[in-house]
Each structure stands twice: as structure tokens, then as C-alpha cells.
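Blackboard transcription, Thursday session:
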Amino acid sequence: MTVQSVLSVAAILFSLGLYCVLTRKNAVSVLMGVELILNAANLNFVAFSSFTGTIGAPEVAGRVFAVMIIVLAAAEAAVALAIILAIFRRMGTVEVDNLNELRE
Amino acid sequence: MVNTLVFYCVAAFTVAAAGVTAFSHNIIRSAFALLGALIGVAGLFGMMGADFLAVVQMMVYVGGVMVLVLFAVMLTHRIRDITISNQSMNPGTAAVIAGSMLGLLLFGIWRGIPGGTQPGYESAASLIGENLLSAYLPVFLLAAILLFAVMVAAVVIARHRPHPKGVGSNQGGEEQA
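(Written on the board underneath:)
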């Protein structure tokens, strides 16, 4: 278990999330891709924090950043899903290629 | 040795779950695979000694965000078309973009970063707490304000409002100014 292996897992997660964001028609699925990308970033922060510190004193900035990213991701998910629900109520669809106007 | 083996098992589980999330045609299956990927990431956090982050990940993502996602999936879908509920478009172009991104990242990771081994298991929960309340106090307070704003905003946005053009749909709800 080296820093490269953890970063490689994060890179694969990022690429899968990017693919998900680029291809999905459903807005909820796009959001799932964004969650995967945020998790990949978090994995990078924790990896660098763990592998660059010394015993008993890891680089704590990376951990704090990761906590903040988790908070931001939760906030983003709550607001985005509320918006998706409102859009579905208005327009009857959540497919992103049908949503091309701000009001009907 | 055992550590390495467990790491590869957890990493394979995480990547497989993320793959199902990205490629499944069924959105419910996709959502539950995302749940597996998040649990796998929590496991990787734990293996790197970030036990506090692993617990936070389990509580916030697996307990909170996933419930939100599942609610959104089930509230915005008609169950009859569930097997084709997660359609994709332009898979070729997206695969080229994501694949070249992955290649660049892996090249940089394996060429540009000096190899490091983990300096041993350490629990940084108390360090995180001390830093959150001293050096990173402004960020902590900003996060608190953000969470409050988000809570109000989510309720206001998702609240059921009568349709302005609907017939007889404006009983029991005042139109927002």
C-alpha cells in the first residue's frame, strides 16, 4: 500500500465520475457522478495527509480539508436534489437534455 | 502483507462499485452501487489511519446523502420504465475524454510522485478537533453558516407550491412574493 496505489484508485474513481457526468441523461445520475469525483478528491487529500506526515503527527491540514469537502458535498447534494425535485414538479422530467429553459 | 491484500480487496470493491454506478442502465442499481463505492472509500480512509474521516464518511455520505439520492430517484421516476431509466448519450466521446484523463493522471502519479510508505497507523481525531477550533476556526464557522443557509434553501426550494396555471390548485397555499 503505497501513495501511488491510493492515488491510482482515486484517479480511477475520478475518471468513472467524469464519464458518469458526461454521459448521463438523468440529473440525479449526473449528481452521482459529481459525488464520485468529490470522493476521489477526498481520497487524494487523505492519502497525501497520511503518507507525508510522521508517526503520531500526520499532516492535519489534509484531514481538515477532507472534512470541509464532505460538508460541502452534503450541502451541494441537498440543494441540488431539492432543485431536481422542483424541476420535476414543474416540467415533469429530469432529463438534462430536455431542460433548456428556466421557465415554461 | 495482510495489509496490502486487504487494501487491494477494498480498492477492487470500490472501483467495481463505481463502475456499476457509471455504467448501469438501472438507476436504482446505480444508486446502490454508489452506496458501495462510498463505503469502500470509507474503508480506504480507515486503512490510511483516518478513522475520524471514515466515521464521518459513513455518517454523512452513507447515512445522509445516499438517503437523499434514493429519495430523489424514487420521487422523480415512474417505476414502469426502470430498466432503461438511466440512459446515456455520446458514450464514445465521453469514454475518450475520461480515458485520456485517466491515462494522464496515472502517468503523472507513477512518474511524478516520489514513492512513499505509510508512516504507521495514527489517529488524528484530537488533532483535527484542535485545529478546527484554532487555526481553521473561520472555515469552521463559515461551514456552519453555509449548512444553515442550505437547510433553509432546501426546504424553500423543495416546498410544494401550487402551480400558477393549474385549475383550482391555489387552495391552502399562498403564492410566494
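Lecturer's comment: Residues 51-75 of chain B form the longest helix (25 residues).
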